Amino acid sequence: PLFHKILTTKFLTISGWILISSTLPTDYWKVSSVDGTVITTATFWSNLWKTCVTDSTGVSNCKDFPSMLVCRGLMISAVCLGFFGAILALVGMKCTKIGGSETTKARITCLCGLHFILSGICSMTACSLYAHRITSEFFDPLFVKQKFELGAALFIGWAGSVLSILGGFIFCFSMTEGFSISNPLFSWHFVPAHQTYILPEQMFWREHGKEAEARNYIFNSSGQQVGEKQTNEQTKNKTL
Hints:
The protein is built from 6 helices and 7 strands. The strands form 2 sheets. The chain has a 5-stranded antiparallel beta sheet. Strands 6-7 form a two-stranded antiparallel ribbon. It is elongated.
């Protein structure tokens, strides 16, 4: 079951990383169209790198889009983190011969999950910032320029982010669980208590031994008093 869980988690994370990576070259992060009386006369679209307009004949006119440096950095970081996370996932798998002991593999796999979580967070942050700018301009009544709508690339990026974060958490928790089961740090051994039978005479001596010794009493094996010990002074008096 643990092996199937690892494969499923790896499929989720790799799928999320592919979706995140596919948003970088995708054109339609935001899109808008100018409709004529019969056909669409022009389509405006933008991504992380440029903003373009395409007329009805399919000819595009583009210019650089210089104001998305934060989103660009976050998306590139997300792709790089996902790439290194995929490599660490291969190293941390138990079926591979690299990575060292199971303790080292468990740590590598948890680090892999952390990479995918950070990758998903970076991608989701970038897509959310881009979408926030679009929606704020769209619902602003004082904004008189061309208004855009959310493009397909944003939804692809959000989906990839969710898969990466979900797979990263599953990686961390599943591998920690498997490692703790196979290699416990502490082992508890419950040893049953030994029962010992004590004779009545032994019990008597346990309870009254010190008292008898203090009072110089003499008892037989059955616990009955048979006499009194004589001190040194009493022995000297009898001798005299």
